[in-house]
Structure formats: C-alpha cells, structure tokens
Amino acid sequence: xxxxxxxxxxxxxxxxxxxxxxxxxxxxxxxxxxxxxxxxxxxxxxxxxxxxxxxxxxxxxxxxxxxxxxxxxxxxxxxxxxxxxxxxxxxxxxxxxxxxxxxxxxxxxxxxxxxxxxxxxxxxxxxxxxxxxxxxxxxxxxxxxxxxxxxxxxxxxxxxxxxxxxxxxxxxxxx
Length: 175
What we know:
This protein is α/β, with parallel strands linked by helices. It has seven helices and six strands, in the order E-H-E-H-H-E-H-E-H-H-E-H-E.
C-alpha cells in the first residue's frame, strides 16, 4: 500500500475488537505484516482469546497498561495513566522502526476517554504515522477530533443484547 488509511470502530455494540481481528486476518491472508496492541486488557485473566489466536497466526502482539481500575481494584489510576503513556510512546517508537503494514490499537479510544492516554499523543501519532501504515483504533466514545482524522468510521450500535435479559457473557462468543 502506498498510503495507509485510518479506521475507527466505535460505539456501544458488540464486535469492535472482532472487526479489527477480522481485518488482521484478511491482511495476513494477503501477506501483510500486522501489529496488534491491546490497552487495559488482561488476556490471561479474562480470556481474551483473540490475543493468543493472533499470536499463533504471526501477529506481533503488545499489551499496553494491562488491566483497568474499573475491573482491577489493585490498580491506582494515576500510576496507570503514567504507565499507559510510557508504554504507548515505546510502542510508537517500535512501530516507527519496523515495517508493519497494519497496526491495531485495540481499546485505545477507551484509554483516551478514561483519561489514561492524552488524546494529543494519539492524534500526533495519527498525523505523523508512517505513510504506508494502515491504522485501526477501537473503543467506545470516539471523540469528534479522532473521527475527523479517520478515513473509515464504523459505529457499532447495540440494538439488543442478551445482557439486557441478565444472560451472562458466554465463552467463545462474548469473550
């Protein structure tokens, strides 16, 4: 690709990470190199099995500031914000030194919305990313500023969900 574009998958519906993982699968099928970075998740604790599957397929995976104070009471918000910013900057430097075709920043929008990652750091990266890098951002509550910088924006809206009927998340489907 001579020019990589910016995608956003946002909204309150199920499937933002799944859509990003599907794009990674398509890219891999065409011989593209993929880097996937997840923000504030703990795959070993909560069963985010897409992480393991992507690794098996040859995707380079990075965990940024694993865990979230909302779910993990042992995490101190201020320290978590410092860690998020530090690890994001390290990831950006790594991406600039590699030749990835696709970079997925899963839940980075939540990181911005929760106050763990300054939006300016993300928008500066978007504006100065490697020219051929396709970039995907996921998470609820994308800001107007982020949406303005994107080439694709998909809002995944919840119309109906089993959780509304008190049906718990099911392994292999919701996680």
